[in-house]
Amino acid sequence: MIKIAVVYWSGTGNTEAMANKVAEGAMETGADVSIFTASDFNSELMDSFDAIAFGCPSMGAEELEESEFEPMFSDCKSKLNGKRIALFGSYGWGDGEWMRTWEKICTDCGASLACESVICCEVPDDDAQAACIALGKALV
């Protein structure tokens, strides 16, 4: 059975809602799914999973949340080479620059993006929730 980790940080609950939909999609395909907040995940756990979905909203000037998520993600960068991952997150302003930057960081580290990243403005609507479920399925 494929083991999937869904790792996220959420300040308002929007990215948490997306994480739950990603997990739902992965479970629908038969994966063994574990959900972690950013503070509960680190690079030592990376090898325990076949694939990982990372979720973080856009913060500040379109960047990853810097107190919990970014330090955890930086710790995991050394284990991204050859790892199958997917990215998701919500935003309240901007045009998705944070996600494009994040995707480039991941591919530069050798990660394989399983599918197109999912972003949504504020609360995930029906389309965003469906895209998150599809992301979870694609990760498997």
Description:
This protein has helices at residues 14-28, 43-46, 69-76, 97-108, 126-139; strands at 3-8, 32-37, 51-55, 84-91, 112-113, 118-121. With 140 residues, the protein is α/β, with parallel strands linked by helices. Strands 1, 2, 3, 4, 5 and 6 form a six-stranded parallel beta sheet that branches. α1 (14-28) links the parallel β1 (3-8) and β2 (32-37). α1 crosses α5 (126-139). The protein is globular and about 40 Å long. The model has no long low-confidence stretch (mean pLDDT 96).
Please outline the helices and strands:
Blueprint: E1 3-8, H1 14-28, E2 32-37, H2 43-46, E3 51-55, H3 69-76, E4 84-91, H4 97-108, E5 112-113, E6 118-121, H5 126-139
Parallel strand pairs: 1-2, 1-3, 3-4, 4-5, 4-6
Helix pairs in contact: 1-5
Please summarize what this structure is.
It is built from 5 helices and 6 strands. It is α/β, with parallel strands linked by helices.
Cα-to-Cα separation, first versus last residue:
10 Å
The gyration radius over C-alpha positions equals 13 Å
* Average pLDDT figure: 96
Compressed to H and E, one letter per element, the order equals EHEHEHEHEEH
**Strands, total number:** 6
Q: Enumerate the spans where pLDDT stays under 50 for 5 or more consecutive residues.
A: none
**Total of DSSP H or I helical runs spanning 4+ residues:** 5
Instruction: Please give the share of residues in helix.
Output: 25-40%
Beta strand %: 15-25%
Name the structural class.
Answer: alpha/beta
What general outline do the C-alpha atoms trace?
A: globular
